[in-house]
Amino acid sequence: MKSCKLLIALNVIFLFVLSLPVLAAEQTEPQRGPNRTPQLDPAITAEPAALPAIEPVKPVPEPRMTPKIDRGPVDPDQPVSSQAPDYRNSIPAIQAYIDENLRDIFASLHIDRNAKGQEIVVLSFAAEVSPKHKQAILALAENPELIEFRLVNFTEKELMAKQREISAAWDSFNAEGIKIHTVGINVFINKVEVGIEPYNENTIAKIHQAFGNDMVEVVQGYEVHLLAQPDGAEPAIAPDAAGGGSLAQDSPAQENYALDGDAKPKMSFFQRIIQFFKSIFSWVGN
To answer: Is CATH 3.30.300 the classification given to domain 87-151?
Structure first.
């Protein structure tokens, strides 16, 4: 039986050796397919005659949309000027002085524009600032004429406490069908701004009934969506604290394993010849 197998194997090897030139020619011939560049005639690929220069068409810029920002009682048609206070030197020094001397009545610090269109530093306090402290603050400023003192109703501490109170009630309002999307301090109007959905008279009244009217401004809320990752993967979500959920993304090792599991190794021409002889000798030996 083994002698018959040996004769068959020798015949197969003889035929295979005769076909080697054909197989080698197929391997060396340029493959054609959707991802292969065809070999063109040099006469065809020769550079064409120079065309007359054409002036490029200038793109027409699209109009930019200006976002609407609630800045309180500010004239939107006021002139604009490039003159501004020295933010790097003035504001840090002024803020440090306020933290040390006027923290209890401090409300906010923000940038706005005056009637001349100049950018100014607005310092808001819940009580009148004494002339002594005003002079000390103005002495720290690079441009004292661009410092403005404003009297408001609530301090920063009071607004932050109200903000925490509203944030703690998210779940209870969500159970009633009111989604609180955003809660933050609006320094321009000296109130806590609450973005809710749905936004109607009934839901607004419920928010004011729970937290009052004086410190709370209710606005239309919008759900925040996470941006997709550059590689197209879903955004990572923190694990569930109660259920100990898993992360949205798998580890890189698991991702590589999934990719390599479907891929088949590609052998070269000579590797396939060696594999062919191994299979023949294995068959003869059995």
So the answer is: yes
Task: List, for residues 171-206, the tens digit of each pLDDT value.
Answer: 999 999 999 999 999 999 999 999 999 999 999 999
DSSP sequence for 239-268: PPTTTTPPPSS--HHHHHHHHHHH--PPP-
Strands 106-113 and 119-125: antiparallel
CB atoms within 10 A of CB 255: 13
What are the pLDDT digits (tens) for 82-115?
444 455 558 999 999 999 999 999 999 999 988 8
**CA 101 – CA 137 distance, rounded (Å):** 11
Across the beta sheet with 191-197, what order do the strands follow?
A: 179-186, 191-197, 216-220
Strand partners, 186: 191
